[in-house]
Amino acid sequence: MTGSIISRTLCSVALGLAVLASHAAAAEFDQSHALFDVVLKQRVKNARVDYAGLKAHPQDLNRYLDQVAGVSKTEFKKWSEPQQIAFLSNAYNAFTLRLIIDHYPLRRIKDIGSIFSGPWDQPVVRLFGGTMDLNTVEHRILRKDYTEPRLHFVLVCAAKGCPPLRGEAYVGARLEAQLVDQAKQFLAESAKNRVDAATRTVYLSPIFKWYGSDFEKKHGSVLAALKPDWPGKSVAGYEEFKIRYTEYNWSLNEQPRKQQIQTL
After folding, report:
1. Which of 93, 211, 221, 240 has its CA 20 to 30 A from that of 134?
2. Helix, strand, coil proportions of the chain in percent (round to 5)?
3. Count of alpha carbons within 13 Å of 232, Cβ hemisphere only?
4. Residue 101 has pLDDT above 50, yes or no
5. Residue 131 parent element (H or E)
6. How many domains does the chain have?
7. Residue 239 lies inside a defined structural domain of this protein
8. pLDDT tens profile 154-212
9. Distance (Å, whole) CA 262 – CA 264
């Protein structure tokens, strides 16, 4: 009888330790975002995504999304601000990729959903023990909690008009350097952002019309915010130029189909 009691006690202790160990493991999120980094390196080339290949082989993306979903709000709040921004930015981009391959093939992200509930209103984001949409991540968390307008160079809505989807995951330890590089890459895309000195006009992506207040809040004006990262030396005195907005291309930011097939 005594042996049986001892045996049951040891089993209970072992079970308790196992539960504690599993909880500890769940709290240890990989801040290198290694799984998502693999996905991006494999499936993104020149800011274009191999959606066909990703749809055929979504295992690493799914595993990463499971990791994201396993992070509690309590654990998240213990991280540094750069780690939090990197986590939420990667989550937004990763769940956007998942949303696209769930509906692929398609011409553009706007083809998902309906006139009453568009792609950014779909409850596809598993975060902090619940489910939310992409709009919530962007507008009610990132834009609300962080004074970082360069987030608009990071969040990619699967359209060619977006900033380039980076071929690596964002990480807290290198976030500032990644943000600077993202800004420079996006502003260097002349189809989206350029200066016409002859007409004293700065042409900007509509992103700066939609979210201009975020840049103004931190820098006083949109042009002041862009000045440090503008390519070349063609913008001397551009603060006095008028602003016009370029056309936003909503077509899917996918790789050419022939190139995608070769990667399968």
Report:
1. 221
2. 55, 10, 35
3. 10
4. yes
5. strand 130-132
6. 1
7. no
8. 999 999 999 999 999 999 999 999 999 999 999 999 999 999 989 989 999 999 999 99
9. 6
